[in-house]
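Hello forum,

I keep getting stuck at the same step: I have a sequence, I want structure tokens, and every attempt I make locally crashes halfway through. Rather than fight my setup again tonight, could one of you with a working pipeline run this one for me? It's a single chain of 377 residues.
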Amino acid sequence: MKCIINGQIILPTEVKTGMAIIFDEKIENIVKADEIDLSKYEVIDAKGNYVAPGLVDIHIHGYMGCDTSDGDANGIRKMSAGLVKNGVTSFCPTTMTVSQEEIEKAFNDAREVKAEGAKNGAKVLGINCEGPFINPSKKGAQAEDHIKKPDADFIINNADIIKVYTIAPEMEGGLECVEKVYNDGRVVASIGHTGASFDEANAGIKKGVRHTTHLFNAMTSLMHRNPGVVGAVLSDENVSVELIADTFHINPGLYKMVAKLKGDKLCLITDCMRAGGMPDGDYTLGGQPVKKVGIQCLMPDGTIAGSVLDLNKGVKNFYEHSGVSLPEAFAAASLNPAKAIGEDDKIGSLEVGKLADIIIVDNDFNIIKTIIGGLEK
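Reply #2:
Ran it on my machine without issues. Output:
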């Protein structure tokens, strides 16, 4: 049995000091440190740093030169190992609008790595299937040649590995697909890469859309007479939203507004591509050329193509620009995304009975230590 002492512990609603987290594979107790016999435990001294829940990235395409859609299980393993350094303890490898054969190969790779648990590093929770059921007019960095008509059976037949899928509900068959998958109850529908009007977006929500793919990006914007998808998802309390807090995809001046409107329905993501953790240069996303310069990843025509954000830096950016508390900032990258995909009974917060997925973070949000299922990684 282990325990962490001398930390500023980030609990769901408060920051506590003078406490000890006792854990093995799961968190066994959170008690006053002066009430336990430390000689009975393997002691980890947090040295005054923050002790927070492991981060959960539910939308990440690639990292360290690898991409989920490459069709290489070892690539997902490399992503898993690299993400630990950013405090990520669980993630959803994310596919793109590529060929069906490539998507299905990625699903099988994810199944293989998921079965290995935390052996490689961060755990695979399941796939985020971003495409191919999108609107060509809002394809962004997705390949138009591989866009398909919404197919509920495809999602349901792979519900063992898909946690969330993106759909443009205004496309032919979109509403029927959302409703059928929602009634199946295993996979979350996310509205994204969509040209839907406010009314069309609300029709999708009524049929079962419960999540939003990278809010503001690749969707109809908020206008006072045409509220668009942004207006629909911000005003509906049942729909969670993803935010890429890299200060480039979205002006950080909007973080406070989104935080106030969405509360625990706000999920920080990276939307990171293979250039994440790599030097500036030329890369690919979904088979298309992308140039990385600093925090920007752009296609030759100037289209934004994913990010190179580390999730711990996303938490820092969000905290510094949103006015939220530390527990709220960390929850946006842990408990909230875990809730969005139905994993919050096991992960996402420092609570007794949950898995001991724990990070120790300094005042600048750099990762000092990552613990997954009670084991240091």
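The chain has a mean pLDDT of 96. If your local run keeps crashing, start a new thread with the error log.
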